[in-house]
Amino acid sequence: MPVIRILALAALLAISGCSFTPFKTGTATGAAPTGSKPREPGAGPVLTAPTEIGRPDGGPVIETPPPAQLPRERPRVPPATLSPASRTLVSQAQAQRKKGDLPGATVSLERALRIEPKNPLLWLEMGRLRMDQRNYPQAENMARKALSMSVGDDSTQSAAWHLIADSLRARDRNPEAEEALERARALEPS
Question: How confident is the model over 62-102, as pLDDT tens digits?
Fold first, then answer.
């Protein structure tokens, strides 16, 4: 019984495929077939590509390329701010850093990040803490994360580039640090 169903389905698919003609058909000489003239047995349709419309001689239509687009200016967004709860936790973390309690500051900032995981200011603060812990690669990663979250916020992006420059300089990658510093200065208000 299942074989019959498969054969019936195959037959239906074959029949439905015959009803659709995606290309123009014509004879081997290129002339279109007419309904009154019988064709030779076994001669199938000749597929031809559709012709371009718009040129009287039937030649290809040459379209002019679109004008070069100028790069779009980045949308300006207001500077990032902290919520009251995050601000309290950041203040607490800064006090803990001053006392030398870096593990306690980490816990405070992680709590703030659970409240506002998409706030670039918190990632910058965590990056500064990583600098204090001498974990320079992770400080750079935190700054780059803040950079990606603050598109259009020049002051936050400038701070992120400064942190990246500090991280690179701490690892004696001075040419890269200078490039990062130039990017930071370019984003600072004049």
Answer: 666 666 666 666 667 788 899 999 999 999 999 999 999 99
* Residue keyed to tokens 């500090």: 166
CA distances (Å), 103 to each of 43, 94, 96, 110, 127, in order?
A: 84, 12, 9, 11, 14
CB 138 within 8 A of CB 157: no
- Is this model's pTM higher than 0.85 or not? no
Amino acid at 128: R
- Domains of the chain by range and CATH? 85-187 (1.25.40.10)
d(CA 111, CA 101): 16
Is a pLDDT exceeding 70 seen at residue 13? no
Token pair of 124, please? 């910058």
pLDDT exceeds 90 at position 46? no
- How far is 3 from 15, CA to CA, in rounded Å? 18
Token reading at 149: 């979250």
Cβ atoms 127, 146 nearer than 8 A: yes
63 token code pair: 């379209």
